[in-house]
Amino acid sequence: FFLGLSGGQKKRLSVAVALLSRPLVLFLDEPTTGLDAAAAAGLMKLLQQLAASARILIVATIHQPSAQVFASFDNIMLLARGQTAYQGPAHRVAPYFASIGHPMPETATAAEYMLDLINDEFTSAEKVNSVVAQWQQQDRHANTQASHITRPIRGASIYQQIELLLK
């Protein structure tokens, strides 16, 4: 089925197969793993366009996003040791960390900096604990914009799903 396809083509084909059933939500675990920077950015741009045009909610785990991949995110959730360190619009992550006393260095990208800040392999455990505690204390999760969560989405009817299963 996948013979002769590049890594990027395999990833795109896997996503296309998943989209055949017109899901309301598409969960992707590390969709950019094994792809070069250009292929990863291209795949994420495609997913962003699909989410908007097909009204599909796409949830993806991405371990170390490049700056280009990070730029394709609408909303993010950062976890530090299984606890939320930030959740909200991707473009607000750097201002949020600056507001709690952790401004991003001018030489860093948001993707690099946030991972360095919440990973105790790169910073102290105390700093990670502080970031998590400040998130919980400020109750930032209440500021999630409902319009991003509750926008209408369209999925396949039960008949279309059964037809696809029987093929």
Automatic annotation (TrEMBL):
PANTHER family named in the record: ABC TRANSPORTER G FAMILY MEMBER 28, PROTEIN SCARLET
Compartments where found: Membrane
GO CC terms, sorted: membrane
Pfam families found in the cross-reference section: ABC2_membrane_7 (PF19055), ABC_tran (PF00005)
Protein name: ABC transporter G family member 16
The keyword NAD belongs to this UniProt entry's keyword annotation: no
Membrane topology type: Multi-pass membrane protein
ABC transporter domain: residues covered: 4-33
